[in-house]
Amino acid sequence: MSRGIRAPANLPELVKTAFARARGDGDLHYFPTQVTILPVGNVPFQLRFSPALANKPKAPSPPAGSSPSRRQQAAPPDPFADPPRALFVADLGPAHYLVLNKFAIVPEHFILATRAFEHQTDVLAAADLEAALACIRAYDDDSADAGELFVFFNCGEHSGASQPHRHLQLLPVRRMRDGLVEGQEKEEAEGVHRGGEGRSTWDVLADGADLAGVPFATFAEDIHLGMSPGDLFAAYLRLYRRACHAVAAYNGDGQPTGEGDESQAVPPATGPTRISYNMAMTRRRLVVCPRLAEGDVVRSGSGSEERPVGRLALNGTVLAGTALVKTQAEWDALREDPGQLAGVLARIGLPRRMGDVDGAML
């Protein structure tokens, strides 16, 4: 019998050490953030602000007037084809490896990538999920009390995906809490108005009952650390297929599309995905969130003085209950009017009435 995929038992320490070394040597970019909690109804949502991220290094553009073939040749290289040794963490089974995120907002952010090129827009394979659960298990078993791991996956044009090579992203939950207490105390001292009566205690959204309180539909099942790869993959397929059927049944008016039998066909277990979606995995739960938009405009002022000041874009960390802005104007506008965050969240996916936390159609 195969032993299956197992992560190194000391994975949290490997990640921590690799991150500290790479940061110290200048091999990765870490963008510190300010953080506050905004209410989305009664759900506490993290908002982080990183002005330095606006200056994130970009790949050079092809020369003006260059031919299409020249522009294609100048496309950014695949960062997961041959990752820098300074960012490498560990091999994981025959088909995957772990590497640090070169552009980190959360310390110790690392990535699970396929060794050979696989499409980010294809349905996940059983081995992808098995490898992710192995990492979650390594953090859960760690004697140094590293805490839990949040795993997310961005798939499709509306999901916040940025690389075509298949990869899942992993964040230590304890590092996602960095700055929370200090940030809240500072804002309370400064009398910052956040509007609403939402709770101030943040926890991973995908893990708790708050998932039913957000304005976008999600589909979820409970999982556990001892789950077999086959059972885990089956759970993922059920959620993905429910999300596909929900999107097929929905248009902008919330009415059936009239696609008939085609909309009810079972989405295949391999090949290109039919929808944009985010997936999240914790030690307790697997969640799929169908996406219709990556984000929306943030505005400042009111009435005739209202003006757009930026655009809030959201990836799979939305299922952790987090959002990120890059400019002072966006940061100020959302803190002054947290209802804007709730409004953007209501427009990125299916309305909550299309599904509940268990994925049942309402």
Strand order of the largest sheet: 4-5-7-9-8-11-12-10
Computed CA radius of gyration, to the nearest angstrom = 21 Å
Specify the number of helices.
9
By secondary-structure content and strand pairing, the structural class works out as: alpha+beta
Query: How much is the average pLDDT?
Result: 87
User: What characterizes the major β-sheet?
Assistant: 8 strands, antiparallel
Shape: globular
Order of helices and strands: HEEEHEEEEHEEHHEHHEEEEEHH
Distance between the termini: 43 Å
Brief write-up:
With 362 residues, the protein is α+β, with helices and mostly antiparallel strands.
Write a concise keyword list for the protein shown above.
15 strands; single chain; alpha+beta; 8-stranded antiparallel sheet
